[in-house]
Amino acid sequence: MRHILVIADAGSGNSPALRRAAEMQQAEPTRLSVIGFVHEVLPHDPQLDVAALREALLVQRRRQLMRVLQRYGIDATPQVLWEKRIAEWVSAEAVKLGVDLVVKTGHRSETWHHTPTDWQLLRSCPVPVLIVPQRAWHTRGAILAAVDLGTRLPAKRALNLAIVEAASSMARNAGTELHVAYAVPQSPVLRDLGVSDRRRLIDAARQRADQFTEDLRRRGIDNIRVHIKAGTPYKVLVSLAAQTKAHTLVIGCVGRKALSGRIIGNTAERTLGLAKTELLALKP
Asked: How many CB atoms sit inside 10 A of residue 218's CB?
C-alpha cells in the first residue's frame, strides 16, 4: 500500500480506523491522508453568527483529531471538513488522490431505511475499503477470503483471484493462516421441500474448488485451507469467520444501488452487519 485514506472517527476518543492505519504504516512505508468530518444541524437564529459557529466547531474537531494522531504516532496533517455526504465525498477524493485503500471504523447504529455510511462506501467507492470493527472477535487471527466459484462471468472470476491474492498478502505480512471460503447458495425453501440436494451441491463445488486451488498454486499461492458450505452466503461467511477465528474477511462487493439493494442488502453488506471482523471489500 502506497497511499491510504483514513476516515477519522468523530469525537476525541479512540479511533480503530486510525489505530489500524498506524499499524499498516509501521509494517511498510505508507502515506496516510486523514480526513475528519463535522456536520451539525445549527439553529435558525438571526442573531447567531452561523459561519463563526461552524468555523469554531471545525477548529475544535481539528484539535481533537491532532491529539488522537499523536496518540497513535501518526505524523500527518488532518483535513477537517463540514460535510454531510461522507461516502460521496470520500469516493470522489479517493479517485482524485489515487489512493490504494480507504479505511473506516464500522458503525451499526443506523436502520435499514437510513443507509449507513459504511454501506454507501461499499457500494460507491471505486477503491478497496477496509471496515474496522469497534470490537473485534480476535485481535490477531487468520485471514479468510470469500470467493464465488459458481460464477461464469470473467470479471467475477478475476475478482476471485484478486481477493485471494490480497488475502494471501495480508496473511503473509501478518504471519498467519490463509483460509478460503466458498459459500454455495442453497435456498432454505427448496431445501425443506427436498428439491435441493446439499450433498450434490457440495460435491460439484468441491470440483470447482480443486481447480481453483490448482490455479492458485500455479500463481505461487499455496498453504491454504478451503472451506465449502451450503446455505445463505452471508450466514455461511459469518459462521466460517467465527470458526476460523478470522481477524480479516476479504470479500468482493458488487453494490446494488436500487431499492432492492437497500432492502435486501448485498452479501458484503449483510456480512458486515453480523461479523465482528475486519472486512476488506474489493470491487471487480
From this structure: 9
Return the residue matching grid coordinates 486451488. Answer: 213
Q: Which of 39-63 are b and which e, b meaning 16 or more Cβ less than 10 Å from the residue's Cβ?
A: eeeeeeeeeeeeeeeeeebeeebee
Reported pTM: 0.87
Amino acid residing at 124:
S
Q: What are phi and psi of 98, to 5 degrees?
A: 70, 40
| Grid cell digits, residue 179 | 483460509
Residue 228's DSSP bridge partners are 182
Q: What is the pLDDT of residues 177-221, one digit of tens each?
A: 999 999 988 766 455 445 457 788 888 899 999 999 999 999 999
Q: Is 249 helix (H, G, I), strand (E, B) or coil?
A: strand
End-to-end CA separation in angstroms for the chain: 19
pLDDT at 261 over 50: no
* Contact residues for 220 (Cβ-Cβ < 8 A; gap 6+): none
Residue 120 CB neighbour total at 10 angstroms: 18
Is-contact 278 130, C-beta < 8 A? Answer: yes
Contacts of 174 (CB under 8 A, 6+ apart): 140, 143, 247
**Closest by CA position to 5, among listed 150, 127, 135:** 127
Q: Indicate if the pLDDT at residue 262 is higher than 80.
A: no
**Rounded distance between C-alpha atoms, residue 19 and residue 198, angstroms:** 43
- Pairing state of beta strands 3-7 and 101-105? parallel
Give the HSE-up count for residue 73: Cα atoms under 13 Å, Cβ half-sphere: 6
